[in-house]
Amino acid sequence: MDSRRKFLKKSVLGAVGLGVFKNSSGGDLGRIGNAQTSNPIVISTWDFGVAANSAAWGVLRTGGSALDAVEQGVRVAEADLDNPTVGKGGYPDRDGVVTLDACIMDARGNCGAVAALENIAHPISVARLVMEKTPHVMLVGEGAKQFALENGFAEEDLLIPSSEKAWKEWLKEKKYEPVINIENRSFNTERLPGNRYNHDTIGMLAMDSKGNLSGACTTSGMAFKMRGRVGDSPIIGAGLYVDNEVGGATSTGVGEEVIRTVGSFLVVELMRQGYSPTDACRQAVMRIVEKKPEIAKNIQVGFLALNKKGEYGSFALQSGFTFAVCHSREQDRIEKGEFYYPSEEN
Ligand code: SD4
C-alpha cells in the first residue's frame, strides 16, 4: 500500500470512531503522560529540557498559564552559557556572528516569531512581544532587533569565548563551507565544548491546569551556518505548532527538512486524525525518509508531541534524541526518543 493510501486509510478509520487514540493497526498508542486534561504537564527537547521544565513547572504548579510556562521555561536554556545551541553562548554563523531564532504559540492560535536576531539574549520574549504588541507574526534581523530595543531589551555581545574558539577551530577544517549537519560525523564533535552536537534547539510544549496548551521553540540554529540562514525553529508550522483542540508539536535537528515537510503542523494534523503523539511523530519522520532518503540517513530530525489528553511521544530519524518530561508525579524524567535508522550504538 503506498503511503498516501495508508494515510487516507488511517484518516478514515480515525474519523469513523475506532477510538481517538487507537490507530488502524492497533499498534503503539503513545505514552500516557497524564490522563486528565486538568493536570499540568510540560515536555521539552533534549536533556537540558530538565532545567527548563523545572522553571516552567514553577509557573504551572501555581496555576499559571501554559504560555507563561513555556516562555519562562525556555528562557532558562537561552540563559545557559554552557549550552552552545540556544541563546547567548550559542555557536555563531560562519562569519562569527551569533543569530537567534525563536517562536511562541498560545492556546488561541496566536503566535509570534523572530529570526536572525542579533545581540538580544532572550529571543523568545521578543517573539512573545511580536505576538502581543504587533499585528504581525514574524520580525527578522535588524527590524527584530530595533523592535526589541524599543521595548526595553538590552543589547549585548552574544559570542562567548568558548563558542568563538569552536568557530575558529571549525574554520580551519571546513574553510568556510556551509555545514548541513555535524551529527553525521563530517566534523569531529570531540572538538566542540562538552562534545556537543551542533543542533540542540529547545522546543517546549505545556498544558496548564485549565487544559490549555502553548509551545515555544528557540535556538541559535545550525552551528556555523551561512549568514542569513534561518531554520525551522522560528517558523510556525515547521519548528512549532499548537492547536488547542488537538495538541502541539515541536522539532529539533536539520531545519531544512522540517521546513520542507512543514513537520510540526503535520504532526498536529495527524493527531487530529487519531494518531497517538508517537505515531504522529513517526509518520512525520517517515515523510522525510520517503521524500529525501539520501539526505535523511545522514541527518538528525526529532519531533516531540503532546496531545490534549496529556499523552506525549516522540520519534527521530536517528538514535540519540532525548526529551524531558515534568508533571505532578515526575518532575525531572528524561526519555529516549524512538528512532528510524538503526545505529551502531543500539
Ligand atoms: C535549525 N532546527 O536551525 C534548528 C537547529 C536545531 O536541534 O534544531 N537544533 O535547523
How are the strands of the biggest sheet laid out side by side?
A: 4-3-2-6-5-1-11-12
Helix count, DSSP H or I runs of 4 or more residues? 10
Order of helices and strands: HEHHEEHEHHEEEEHHHHEEEEE
Q: Using the CA coordinates, give the radius of gyration.
A: 19 Å
Characterize the structure shown:
There is one protein chain. Helix content is 32%, strand content 20%. The chain is an alpha+beta fold. The protein has an 8-stranded mixed sheet with strand order 4-3-2-6-5-1-11-12. Strand 9 (301-307) and strand 10 form a beta hairpin. Helix 3 runs antiparallel to helix 4 (123-133) and helix 8 (263-272) packs across helix 9. The longest helix is centred in the last third of the chain and has 15 residues, at 277-291. Bound molecules: N-hydroxy-L-asparagine. N-hydroxy-L-asparagine binds at residues 85, 199-201, 219, 221-222, 231-233, 252-255.
What key phrases describe this protein's structure?
disordered N terminus; alpha+beta; eight-stranded mixed β-sheet; 346 residues; globular; five-stranded mixed β-sheet
Topology:
Elements: H1 3-15, E1 41-45, H2 49-61, H3 66-79, E2 100-105, E3 111-117, H4 123-133, E4 138-140, H5 141-150, H6 161-174, E5 202-207, E6 213-219, E7 240-243, E8 247-253, H7 255-261, H8 263-272, H9 277-291, H10 293-296, E9 301-307, E10 312-316, E11 322-327, E12 333-336, E13 338-339
Parallel strand pairs: 3-4, 10-13
Antiparallel strand pairs: 1-5, 1-11, 2-3, 2-6, 5-6, 7-8, 8-9, 9-10, 11-12
Helix pairs in contact: 2-3, 3-4, 8-9
Bound molecules: N-hydroxy-L-asparagine.
Residues 85, 199-201, 219, 221-222, 231-233, 252-255 line the site of N-hydroxy-L-asparagine.
